[in-house]
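thread: overnight batch results

M.L. [08:02]
morning all. the overnight job finished for the chain we discussed friday. pasting input first so we're all looking at the same thing
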Amino acid sequence: MRPHAKDISDEEFTAFQNGSQRIFRKIFDTYQNTLLRYAYSVCGKEDIASDAVQESFVQLYQCRSTVDGPSGIYPLLFVMTKRYLLRVFRRSVVEAKFRDELSNSWDERCTATTDELDVNDLRSLLSELVEQLPDKQKKIFQLNKFAGYSYEEISELTGTSKNTVKNQLISASRKIRLSLHKLYAFIFLIYFFHQ
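M.L. [08:03]
and the structure it wrote out:
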C-alpha cells in the first residue's frame, strides 16, 4: 500500500467527522478508483471489486468519528477493502467445498477421513509454496505464521529492521495468496468442465 498525502484540510476533516456529505463525496472521489483497481487486481471480478469498495466507504462513514486524522482515511479504507475481499475468498472456498461435498456420494462415516486428508493436502501445498519463497522471506514467513513471532521478535532474531520484516512478510504472503488463487481458479475450471 503506497502512502497517501493528506488530501483534505483539518477543517474539512472535522466537517467529515461531523457528517458532511460534501467532504465525504470528496473523499470518495479521491480514493474510489485506486481502491477499485486494487480490489479488481485481487479478485479479478468487477462486481466483487465494486461491492468491496462500496462496503468500505459505508463502513468508513459509520466509523468516521474514530478515524485518527486526514492521513488515516486511505489506510483505513484499504484495510476495510482487503478484509472484505478476504471474507469473499473464504466464503467462496467454503461454498465450493460444500458443493463438492453435496455432489460426493460418500457416506458420512468417510467425512472425518476426507476432512483430515483435505487438511493434510492443504498443509502440504502450503509447505511447498513456502519452500519456493526466497530464503529470507521463507524464514520470516515461517517465524511469523508458523511460530507466532511478532515483527519485533523477528527483527531481533534476524538482525533486520522491523519495516524490512513487515515488507518481507507482506511480499511472501502476497506470493502465496496469488499462487493459491491461481490454483483454486484452476481447480474450479477442472471441476466445472468435468460436470
